[in-house]
Write a structure and sequence with these properties.
By secondary structure, this protein is of the alpha+beta class. The chain has nine helices and 15 strands. The strands form five sheets. Strands 1-11-8-3-4-5-12 form a seven-stranded mixed sheet, sandwiched between helices.
Length: about 350
Amino acid sequence: MSKVRKVILVILAVLSLMVIGAYAFLQAQLNKINRVTASETEYTTEDFEEDTDEEDTIDSSTIDYGTVDGTVTAEGIINVLLVGQDTRVSGQRARSDTMIILTIDNVNGALKMTSIMRDLYVQIPGYSDNKINAAYAFGGFDLLDSVIETNFGITIDYNIEVDFTGFQEIIDAIGGISIKLTQGEVNYLSGNSKYSSMGDGNSFSGLTVGYNLLNGEEALAYARIRYVNTEDGSYSDFGRTQRQRTVIQTVFQQLKDEDFNDLWAIYETVADDITTDMNNDEILSVALSAYNLGVDSIEEYRIPEDGSYSSQTIRKMAVLVPTNWDLLRANLQEFIYGTSSAVSSD
């Protein structure tokens, strides 16, 4: 064997070892993320989150859910459900405080997010009709995905969950987020509003009207504000879902221009705060799909839309009941898939 061939073989051997080593390192790092599978999910007995003393305003048996003709899907479009669960106890599954469908649209080169109102009254397979936020508590990702597919005809490909502790650590890991606060939000977060006690009971100092750099604890309290948008201090989940989308937009804007080393350092800090049903290859594929879009912002949507629902009381629960389920589904599917690429499958 000539010296040249020997040198080439040695170089190839070294490169192969480097690739194998890098792959092994990457797999080890991705394994830090918590995993859950449908087969591991324990289903619980149902309960109802009674939050009002008012009498029922509607007979739930009269609700018309319309018709779902299969589940919509489209090649090149990935839906990842982001779940923020309503608990401060790490490792415990509770009601989903936040539900956002993050759509990676490789067809049109877009990132989209759709907030689902937690008080939306829906059909839950195997259980009584209930608020949609109960599904995650009853059966985790598996049941919540089934609820979304049953009620909206939307395919959920993957799921990611972060609890309150993880949320705070993620915000702190990126150095906080710059959020523009209104006077009402400042009063609420500073403990100077008569409705401050209805939230997390926090009282932060130094906040002013305009942009503020919020740390993890402050950002969590901001994302959970429910009593600012209404003069009487009544519950307002609409403002809260907008704040949650604002947080995601802000995190995206702060990170989209970061270099790889900085992003990787952040990942290493927050990896164990994340729970998903994706395997390592799926995580890499989804992350690369989103990165390769190269978009500057995320398109936003919310269900139900303004004027498309009525506020009702069912089983002592304050709920939102869509006035036209078929129209709600059609609008959501249009936002996520578009009419040209969407196909229906049984």
